């Protein structure tokens, strides 16, 4: 077996399962799960209708490049959503089987392991664990940048040593962020683009939460490049229908950006075996062409935040994120920084499951930026979110 597999760490939910394995929750309380960021709103009928109308596509080998119709639809959506010139659907857009698969395989295609020192992949910390696993299995060295409240939950690029920049081949950003919900500003993008110009690394921008916002649509990477008068050189963005359209099982997304980078990625994918079936492509076209269900989805999430934040703002210092469907809350002082102990306690006493923040981060530069925090995913029905928040608030307020 590949010895690099031994460097992979358990997934956060595997660790959570172990943490709660022998816990005994109050059986009188109905379980409320606020731990996993899996959308629970109904998948729009238009997606299911398109799937059922295109079963004939199962008799075809799909092309890795995807259909012209899907690529054109995605290009149209990007142009409308971000107010940018329409990307070239033949060279600047590539359908993928969800952002998770694409984020992982992208690193395998981009990293050049040749050289006397290991290449570096920079990641925010806390982060989506695929970034780390992809880097490790590509033979690269992950470098974590702590994203803390005093830095607006954004990476401090100035803290990266010159020796690290010289070895960096990919920088991951996630905006809106998981788990913080923080969104990169134009100034943030300007700084990152300047560093990419100087050191030549590729920016991989994970934007899968871009359509869950409250007041202002989050700025995207392609949009930032256009506003700064740049091309898409060394920039690739990732998005999917999982959160936008409540269709995580569809496994449908796209990458867009630098045509030269996507050309190499497409070559890799022809060997990787990751072509999207024709019926999923047809359903994806229907989803990207419709905004009504997305607006409804946003309104449902906003209603949850409206109801939950007043309950948790005091006892857990929960604040509105810029976007996405998470609360990045602080555990009560009596638990110190032991977020795992708090998560176990609320499971036992409240029968509510939340995710310890330290499970989403790594010890880096003398600290774990997730310690003392929990991630609360507001994906359950409104009534469950309110009930779970009420129990959390009551427990947190105890002395």
Can you walk through the features of this model?
By secondary structure, this protein is α/β, with parallel strands linked by helices. It has 2 domains: 3-42 and 293-396, Aspartate Aminotransferase, domain 1 (Alpha-Beta Complex); 50-290, Aspartate Aminotransferase, domain 2, CATH 3.40.640.10. The chain is 39% helix and 14% strand. The protein is built from 14 helices and 12 strands. It has a 7-stranded mixed β-sheet with strand order 2-8-7-6-5-3-4, with helices on both faces. A 3-stranded antiparallel β-sheet has the order 9-12-11. The mean pLDDT is 97.
Counting helices, strands and paired strands, the structural category is alpha/beta
Q: What is the CATH C level class of the largest domain, in words?
A: Alpha Beta
Number of helices: 14
> Major beta sheet, specifics?
7 strands, mixed
- Reading the helices and strands in chain order gives HEHHEHEHEHEHEHEHEHHHEHEEEH
| CATH H-level superfamily of the largest domain | Type I PLP-dependent aspartate aminotransferase-like (Major domain)
CATH architecture level-2 label of the largest domain:
3-Layer(aba) Sandwich
Assess the beta-strand content as a share of residues. Answer: 5-15%
Tally of individual domains: 2
Helix proportion range: 25-40%
Number of strands: 12
Mean pLDDT, to the nearest integer, reads 97
Shape: globular
Question: Care to give the gist of this entry?
Answer:
This protein is of the alpha/beta class and about 400 residues long. It is built from 14 helices and 12 strands. The strands form 3 sheets. It has a 7-stranded mixed beta sheet, with helices on both faces.
